[in-house]
User: Fold this.
Amino acid sequence: MSHGSDILLSLFIVFVAAQIGAEIVQRLKLPGVVGEIAAGCVIGPSLLGWVQPAEALDVLAEIGVVLLLFSVGLETRLGEMRRVGPSAFLVGVLGVIIPFVLGSLWAHGSGFDWAKSLFVAAAFVATSAGITARVLQELGALQRQESRVILGAAVIDDILAMLLLGVVTAMQSGETLRMSHLAIVLAEAVGFVLVIGLVGARVMRRSSAWLEAPINPLSPLTIVLALCLGLAFASTQFGLAAIIGAFLAGLIASETDQRDTLEHQTQPLLALMTPFFFVMTGTRIEFSQLANADALLSLALITAIAIVSKLVGGFLGALSLGSRGALIVGVGMIPRGEVGVVVASLGLAAGVFSPRTYALIVAMSLLTAMITPPVLAILLRSKAKNAADPTARHNGPPVD
Amino acid sequence: MSHGSDILLSLFIVFVAAQIGAEIVQRLKLPGVVGEIAAGCVIGPSLLGWVQPAEALDVLAEIGVVLLLFSVGLETRLGEMRRVGPSAFLVGVLGVIIPFVLGSLWAHGSGFDWAKSLFVAAAFVATSAGITARVLQELGALQRQESRVILGAAVIDDILAMLLLGVVTAMQSGETLRMSHLAIVLAEAVGFVLVIGLVGARVMRRSSAWLEAPINPLSPLTIVLALCLGLAFASTQFGLAAIIGAFLAGLIASETDQRDTLEHQTQPLLALMTPFFFVMTGTRIEFSQLANADALLSLALITAIAIVSKLVGGFLGALSLGSRGALIVGVGMIPRGEVGVVVASLGLAAGVFSPRTYALIVAMSLLTAMITPPVLAILLRSKAKNAADPTARHNGPPVD
Assistant:
């Protein structure tokens, strides 16, 4: 009956490491997420080796980030998202083009042929919405216009990154590229987002009574959690990240009358599950591949390219918010996090990347994820000084 | 980026099946847990095959039952547990001896040699606290004396079952049995429970301020969740089930000032995670092995033995509660659930059981798990008519 005791130990270690890491960095006035990722670096295979990669931990991490984006969706109003549509679109598009161009130039300059360079560049493209969403939520900044632009842009970014990855994978493996196929993939993804956002929201607005119908007293929550899991899965069927579907599920669930209760009830779920996502992100780094001056120099260079390219793309796209707002948006788009890791893994599996390039891209993704939160926190806090009620939700929404 | 989409689909199916199953049976005035197990039978490999066994699902199930017993512990007062100590001890001991004796007689009668018969009998012994705890919680009956006796007896039952399994495994494989070794194992397990129950409770009673110290506004919850995972792991190191440690964690966490908040915050966690436990329990049944009259007859017989033996053991042990209270305790001890499945799996792996015996024992475990909740509900509801405020928490505690 000691069935599963190894995994219980891993759960315990990951969870406790996250709490300790978050507490330490919060005492240093940094966002807690930085401490959770750092905790993952420390307990992961590269340093202490207390936690080894395991499918079950990856699933918990996935559930964690899905719930996180769901709760971010819950705190976001659909109508307000629509209002920032044009800025979000511009940020999404420029935030894909500029990193892709700079990334492929760097890759070609460091010796890859053009087909492989484009593949490498794809790892520079996709923003990890999880990191930024967590910081915005932690600082109680989800109601700001900049936050809405960032979240909307993250959806567009994910659609474009998915298309781009399809294109570069095909080019790299020598397949012929059919524009008609690409157009269908694009139309399906955009259609999915629009149908959920428009029809789904309308359905949810009228379903408040129906959510209370089941005997289970927690049924509004269980029904929207089912919706969250269902849309998370559905979005992967359209080539999008699971978190996009989860975000949409939260967005339309926030149209119901039970919105506040749902927000409230989601907090304990986040407390239990999201640490797995951030800690497991941190465990992926491989210090051994980076332990020489040459690799560190390359890392510094590609991290600089990754940061500057997204920052410029986001800044230019969001200029309508004023230069400070545009800066916040630009910084918010910087983290690559797990998305860069996924592209790097695909590249490694396809034989496009060497283990060293893989380690470089993973490290770049983590570095952007670690650098963004403190900068974003400084920008948001200094801006909050001029706003009304600036610190009300400073440490996240209270529960009870 | 469609990483992990298969598992997302499984999560969605399991979660939705649980909600539908629970809703249907609750409309038929049965406890929801019956519907969740039945849903597992339907979507499992034996019927629809929509969900296949997967390590990640088992881990979620384990987390689900760990959280369930943690929350049951939270709703239980340690002082009141102590008061029912003697009855619980008697129920635990008789509830192990009688099923073990009857089980080994049946096994020997159906052709096993004595060493193997004792192993088979071990599958009749261990009560699955998860099923009964869920029913008691669902009916708001955790504050009753009978519930406390059942929970206390489940702890004793688990210690004795663990010892017994050690003994029969050794006998079956022909190892020599060292009484000194057994005495140490027993002393360690009892010591673990006593140290946590006494020292842990004292520490927790004084730690309310300390639980609020971290910056994380949910820190009382995250700290006790860490405690829950830690003690769940620790109890497996003493040969006990993870749920025993989780129950103890809840029990001592209920000594803190934050008890009510913690109970409240645990509800959404149960809503998300416990369905995985009950649905996955249901998926383990193998109908194909039971599809003949002979097998069904054997199943009826061993299920009857399993039910009567535990019922009598529990009833005799709890006679001090009066005959009706003793009946409730006896019924509450009946479910074997996942514990019978674990013993059956060990037997299959060790070559002691044929696939047919394995299927029989799994089916018996599930049948006892399905039969108990309705009977327990009838007994508790009819008893509630004579008590004050009988239906206040009929559908579980409200959240918000």
Notes: DSSP finds 17 helices and no strands in chain B. Residues 355-384 of chain B form the longest helix (30 residues).
